[in-house]
């Protein structure tokens, strides 16, 4: 019976709920999904950033998550944690216990537990051995170092991630051990390259078919097949060095037979080892990812500023006071001292240090959402060994947001005792009021739409007393597969309208929100609902759509009514966002994505050499037979009312457009099932024998 139960458990753990995980399964693959479903994760700190990470990794489907926190819920939390409510504050609940039920119901396959025991310098860390990944938020730097040293020393190492959001700055750090093996660094399909020539030389140069760049990188491996002439290459694997976008070298080919024609080189996915250093060492000699190419110096400057903030907290037992210039000056002195101790002695940016000091007690929910998303991706990489991990620091700032507020009175930033105090500490009260008075139109309540609504609720968008309204629309009903990434929905919402359900869930986060929900599609047919008058009332339009056609239409309406548009979308592991402002940026319709590589007609017709060619050939034939030709036929009879009229016109010598095609179609038109089969058999002979 023990063996039997083990078998059942093993079968259970291998089974993936495709109805729930189908989209994610497509991106990650079954092996990664199964690794994830066997992983135990520990997360400390259930503030605004911690709850974002918890939400994301529970939706993704780890086996078990322990959320740890020792703080009580306060009014402050209402503006940063979307799962904490007024009654949690009244009942003085612990933050981990208050959010436990809400995060647990996001995914029934994940076991979620809460821990409220103190975690400090004296804690015995051996309890962490049961976890594959440890994530720390809101933990002192000294304790981060201690826990990181413990995780790094284990065999195999426990993957360590620390993340923090302080006011307008954020940081993320990863340490996955001395040697972390990644089986697939990109998750992309292996590339196939068609060969036009290979030289007999040392090194041999391989040239691709004309106008087909190989898009390879030096160090990658390729396996060759179907090469004529230099046939000893077939079945062999070679490491390549990129020579140009259309050629690469593969080593010595001078002793081989001369190349004649043909050949395909297929990319071979090889595991890659990533080496990580401990937090202690990385603090003095950081490796940073440059997130914004226009500010390559920013990561090191924020690194110094945030170290100064940690030092300030340790020295004074508190964070710098909101808007306090004296504390900002003190933090600047600390930053200058710290800079001297770092290996490359980075320049101290006074502007960054002072703004971090002024806003450090505050919190920006959208910044936490972005950093929480990236941190969660790193957790998935850590437990699955798929995709290249972050090495090792990521810094993201919102300085652009506060720079215009330089001369604002510091009283603007002080707390008022409401749910927006954390936000107010960063952007001031005037900007908070502007957000409250906004009219926003959100189109689409899917994965991005749910995230947008959550951010609107935390920011207080559309909560003004006299002004402000959030209007949402989505014609779709909720399906089970939506629950994997659209966190406002639960199993009991399946087959209910997305927009109505999303509106109700958003009011749970912030009851003061004014929200209007529709289920009608935004298209030319609904312009009586979404009229010019409707658009001119909106301060900003936000799209969270899944197709380009709808984006183009909404963009044209925004251009006509001079409304700003924020557009974003995702596909697999990739995503985009675009801000379109009248008179300042180009519109969405002003540009087109690069066209799909068109296949020459002669290749399609006579020399299909790749699976893409056969697919395109079939698409063209299908389009011609079942769309283009029937529509020409129907259009002809809309123009001419009867066969008699057509006959009369032909007899009088008139040339009628499409007449030949129509007569041909009429004469061959099948009238019964048997005739359909006959026609199909004739077509088959024509396409696959004669052609």
TrEMBL record:
<keyword id="KW-0547">Nucleotide-binding</keyword>
<comment type="similarity">
    <text>Belongs to the ubiquitin-activating E1 family.</text>
</comment>
<dbReference type="GO" id="GO:0005524">
    <property type="term" value="F:ATP binding"/>
</dbReference>
<dbReference type="GO" id="GO:0004839">
    <property type="term" value="F:ubiquitin activating enzyme activity"/>
</dbReference>
<dbReference type="InterPro" id="IPR035985">
    <property type="entry name" value="Ubiquitin-activating_enz"/>
</dbReference>
<dbReference type="GO" id="GO:0005737">
    <property type="term" value="C:cytoplasm"/>
</dbReference>
<dbReference type="Pfam" id="PF00899">
    <property type="entry name" value="ThiF"/>
</dbReference>
<keyword id="KW-0067">ATP-binding</keyword>
<dbReference type="InterPro" id="IPR018075">
    <property type="entry name" value="UBQ-activ_enz_E1"/>
</dbReference>
<protein>
    <recommendedName>
        <fullName>E1 ubiquitin-activating enzyme</fullName>
        <ecNumber>6.2.1.45</ecNumber>
    </recommendedName>
</protein>
<keyword id="KW-0436">Ligase</keyword>
<feature type="domain" description="THIF-type NAD/FAD binding fold">
    <location>
        <begin position="21"/>
        <end position="386"/>
    </location>
</feature>
<feature type="domain" description="THIF-type NAD/FAD binding fold">
    <location>
        <begin position="426"/>
        <end position="609"/>
    </location>
</feature>
<dbReference type="GO" id="GO:0019948">
    <property type="term" value="F:SUMO activating enzyme activity"/>
</dbReference>
<keyword id="KW-0833">Ubl conjugation pathway</keyword>
<dbReference type="GO" id="GO:0031510">
    <property type="term" value="C:SUMO activating enzyme complex"/>
</dbReference>
<comment type="pathway">
    <text>Protein modification; protein ubiquitination.</text>
</comment>
<dbReference type="InterPro" id="IPR000594">
    <property type="entry name" value="ThiF_NAD_FAD-bd"/>
</dbReference>
<dbReference type="InterPro" id="IPR042302">
    <property type="entry name" value="E1_FCCH_sf"/>
</dbReference>
<dbReference type="InterPro" id="IPR042449">
    <property type="entry name" value="Ub-E1_IAD_1"/>
</dbReference>
<dbReference type="InterPro" id="IPR000011">
    <property type="entry name" value="UBQ/SUMO-activ_enz_E1-like"/>
</dbReference>
<dbReference type="InterPro" id="IPR045886">
    <property type="entry name" value="ThiF/MoeB/HesA"/>
</dbReference>
<dbReference type="GO" id="GO:0016925">
    <property type="term" value="P:protein sumoylation"/>
</dbReference>
């Amino acid at each position: 019976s023990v063996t039997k139960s083990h078998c059942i458990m093993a079968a259970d753990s291998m089974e993936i709920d495709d109805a729930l995980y189908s989209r994610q399964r497509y991106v990650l693959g079954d092996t990664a999904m199964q690794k994830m479903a066997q992983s135990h994760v520990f997360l400390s700190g259930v503030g605004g950033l911690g709850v974002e990470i918890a939400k994301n990794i529970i939706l993704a489907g780890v086996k078990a998550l322990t959320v740890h926190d020792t703080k009580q819920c306060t009014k402050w939390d209402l503006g940063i944690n979307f799962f904490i409510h007024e009654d949690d504050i009244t009942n003085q609940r612990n933050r981990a216990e208050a959010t436990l039920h809400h995060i647990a119901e996001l995914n029934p396959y994940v076991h979620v537990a809460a821990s409220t025991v103190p975690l400090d310098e004296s804690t015995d860390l051996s309890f962490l051995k049961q976890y594959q990944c440890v994530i720390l938020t809101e933990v002192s730097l000294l304790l981060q170092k201690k826990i990181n040293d413990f995780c790094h020393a284990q065999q195999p190492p426990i993957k360590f991630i620390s993340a923090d959001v302080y006011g307008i700055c954020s940081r993320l750090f990863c340490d996955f051990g001395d040697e972390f093996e990644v089986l697939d660094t990109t998750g992309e399909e292996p590339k196939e390259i068609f060969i036009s020539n290979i030289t007999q030389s040392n090194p041999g140069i391989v040239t691709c078919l004309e106008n087909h760049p190989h898009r390879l990188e030096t160090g990658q491996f390729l396996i060759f097949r179907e090469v004529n002439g230099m046939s000893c290459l077939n079945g062999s694997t070679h490491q390549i060095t990129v020579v140009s976008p259309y050629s690469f070298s593969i080593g010595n080919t001078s002793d081989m037979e001369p190349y004649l024609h043909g050949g395909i080189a297929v990319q071979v996915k090889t595991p890659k080892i990533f080496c990580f250093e401990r937090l202690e060492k990385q603090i003095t000699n950081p490796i940073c990812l440059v997130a914004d190419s226009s500010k390559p110096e920013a990561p090191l400057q924020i690194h110094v500023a945030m170290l100064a903030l940690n030092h300030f907290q340790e020295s004074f037992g508190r964070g710098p006071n909101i808007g306090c210039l004296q504390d900002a000056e003190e933090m600047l002195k600390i930053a200058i001292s710290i800079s001297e101790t770092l290996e490359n002695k980075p320049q101290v940016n006074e502007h960054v240090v002072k703004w971090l000091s002024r806003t450090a007690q505050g919190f920006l929910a959208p910044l936490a959402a972005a950093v929480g998303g990236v941190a969660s991706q790193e957790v998935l990489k850590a437990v699955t060994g798929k995709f290249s991990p972050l090495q090792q620091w990521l810094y993201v700032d919102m300085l652009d947001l506060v720079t215009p507020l330089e001369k604002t009175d510091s009283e603007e930033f002080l707390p008022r005792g409401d749910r927006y105090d954390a936000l107010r500490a960063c952007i001031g009260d005037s900007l908070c009021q502007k957000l409250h008075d906004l009219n926003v139109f959100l189109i689409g309540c899917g994965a991005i739409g749910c995230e947008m609504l959550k951010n609107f609720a935390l920011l207080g968008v559309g909560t003004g007393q006299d002004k402000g309204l959030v209007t949402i629309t989505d014609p779709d009903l909720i399906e089970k597969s939506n629950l994997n990434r659209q966190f406002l929905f639960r199993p009991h919402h399946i087959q209910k309208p997305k927009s109505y359900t999303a509106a109700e869930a958003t009011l749970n986060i912030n009851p003061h929100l004014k929200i209007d929900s529709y289920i009608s599609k935004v298209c030319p047919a609904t312009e009586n609902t979404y009229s010019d008058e409707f658009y001119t009332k909106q301060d900003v339009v936000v799209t969270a759509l899944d197709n380009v056609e709808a984006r183009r239409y909404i963009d044209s309406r925004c251009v006509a009514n001079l409304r700003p548009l924020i557009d974003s979308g995702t596909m697999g592991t990739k995503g985009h966002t675009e801000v379109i402002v009248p008179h300042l940026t180009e519109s969405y319709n002003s540009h087109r994505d690069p066209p799909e590589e068109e296949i020459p007609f002669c290749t399609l017709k006579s020399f299909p050499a790749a699976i893409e060619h056969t697919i395109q050939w079939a698409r063209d034939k299908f389009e011609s037979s079942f769309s283009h030709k029937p529509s020409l036929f129907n259009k002809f009879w809309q123009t001419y009312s009867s066969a008699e009229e057509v006959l009369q016109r032909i007899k009088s010598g008139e040339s009628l457009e499409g007449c030949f095609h129509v007569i041909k179609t009429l004469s061959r038109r099948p009238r019964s099932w048997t005739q359909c089969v006959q026609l199909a058999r004739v077509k088959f002979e024509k396409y696959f024998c004669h052609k």
